[in-house]
């Protein structure tokens, strides 16, 4: 599938470096919405999410993720991030496009705690408003900010460990530190819509598996929201669909192969996906499956 509005040389960087460097506010300090709570206050959260005008529900999380995907042009990316393509030059990267760099800034602004430097980043600016390097932008990877934004806007409040690093909530789920996250074995659990599926990146790709969680350290990773399950069709036959951020500098949909039960790995723990050795499914414990007044 052709690359969309990006520099193809950056494909491995954008997905493999799905963790930002810790800020002065503490990259491992996770904070939530509301007046107070486990992860602290965040004055950037709208009232409808802070006060839960609707219960935190699976339907809203999927709808918000899909809304953001459509905003970026509904790209589908089934490429292998470890396959380095030939360098190409495009007109503009999606995260730096007019209207979209501001949206990435909203992921940071709402998803992070106000005290964190990352809260002031955009899709192309640092906290001082200076343009970031067009090519070497892995330092500003925003895929975890996207996950945090969706959770915050959906009304997870202080129950989700918001962070610029995916490993923060992977470890929180595996250690039971978040009341709404449970780490599940990809070989023994069938992901549901609204769950997160996660993979370690970089050097942890071949070593971090479900049995090694939680870790005592942070690690590069990537997670995506499950938005469709029980699918049959190309490119993989049995598959689910996930949506994640900062995939070729955009919010993109990826198809993920499964077995007939919808599981991501064999009983022996071998991932069915040749691109991603999934280390965990994060089951999200929602207050409700959908809005009580949906459609009215």
UniProtKB/TrEMBL annotation:
Region annotation Disordered: where it falls in the sequence: 21-43
Annotated keywords: Signal
Domain DUF2272: 95-284
Pfam families according to UniProt: DUF2272
Extent of Gly residues compositional bias: 24-37
Protein name: DUF2272 domain-containing protein
InterPro entries: DUF2272
Keyword Signal: yes
Originating species: Acetobacter lambici
Signal peptide from the UniProt entry: 1-25
């Amino acid at each position: 599938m052709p690359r969309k509005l990006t520099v193809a040389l950056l494909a491995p960087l954008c997905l493999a470096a799905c963790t930002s460097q810790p800020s002065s506010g503490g990259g491992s300090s996770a904070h939530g919405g509301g007046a107070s709570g486990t992860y602290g206050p965040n004055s950037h959260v709208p009232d409808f999410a802070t006060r839960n005008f609707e219960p935190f529900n699976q339907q809203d999380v999927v709808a918000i993720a899909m809304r953001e995907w459509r905003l970026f042009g509904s790209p589908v990316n089934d490429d292998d991030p470890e396959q380095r393509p030939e360098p190409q030059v495009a007109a503009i990267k999606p995260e730096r496009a007019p209207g979209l760099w501001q949206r990435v800034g909203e992921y940071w602004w709402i998803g992070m705690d106000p005290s964190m430097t990352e809260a002031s980043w955009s899709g192309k600016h640092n906290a001082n408003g200076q343009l970031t390097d067009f090519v070497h932008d892995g330092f500003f990877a925003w895929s975890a900010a996207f996950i945090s934004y969706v959770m915050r806007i959906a009304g997870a409040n202080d129950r989700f460990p918001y962070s610029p690093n995916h490993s923060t909530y992977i470890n929180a789920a595996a250690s039971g530190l978040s009341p709404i996250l449970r780490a599940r074995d990809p070989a023994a659990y069938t992901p549901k819509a609204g769950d997160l599926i996660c993979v370690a990146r970089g050097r942890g790709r071949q070593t971090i598996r479900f049995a090694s969680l939680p870790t005592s350290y942070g690690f590069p990773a990537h997670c995506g929201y499950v938005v469709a399950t029980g699918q049959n069709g190309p490119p993989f036959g049995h598959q689910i669909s996930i949506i994640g951020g900062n995939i070729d500098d955009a919010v993109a949909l990826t198809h993920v192969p499964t077995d007939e039960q919808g599981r991501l790995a064999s009983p022996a723990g071998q991932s069915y996906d040749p691109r991603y050795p999934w280390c965990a499914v994060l089951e999200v414990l929602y207050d409700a499956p959908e809005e009580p007044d949906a459609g009215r």
